[in-house]
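User: Can you predict the 3D structure of 7-methyl-GTP pyrophosphatase? Sequence below.
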Amino acid sequence: MRLILASTSPYRRELLGRLRLPFDVVRPQVDETPAPGETPSSLALRLACAKAEAVARAHPAAWVIGSDQVADLDGTPLGKSGDRDTAIGQLLAMSARTVVFRTAVSVRRGDVAFDSVDCTRVRFRRLSREEVERYVDAEQPFDCAGSFKSEGYGIALFDAIETHDPTALIGLPMIATARMLRTAGFALP
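Assistant: Sure. Here are the predicted structure tokens for 7-methyl-GTP pyrophosphatase:
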């Protein structure tokens, strides 16, 4: 069976590689603009499904994995910062607060689809502007929801992480992904 990751994220590629299944990578062409009033959870799931569907249409015989992550700060979605000033602003807004990261995954082929949303709570410690600037300059996390890399230097920003799946915070909830792939017929332990 052919497997495609509908993402060019190096983080998702590395995570999926842990399953030791051969897979291809295809960039999904999806508008990621939030709909008016859309909740962070709904946005993450809609985008994960849209990415999987977009690639699955072009590759109908393959199983396709789409994923998306949205940081939820009191119901306000925070995506990728894209630049230094926005990253600093996001991290300062999350200082001394708990932020929920909604990471959705969709596995589909044709009309068969499996979807899941993981919720990871991250409690940020009180951060000074100097600490945030030092972190952003060192790691440049502009391509990450919430402007940090928990698998890297960003772990120093937290007081605690509450999760059922530590890989979800990196960008692809592997426990749910492995379960869905086993259901689809892939041989995994």
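The longest helix spans residues 40-58. Residues 29 and 91 are 29 Å apart (CA to CA).
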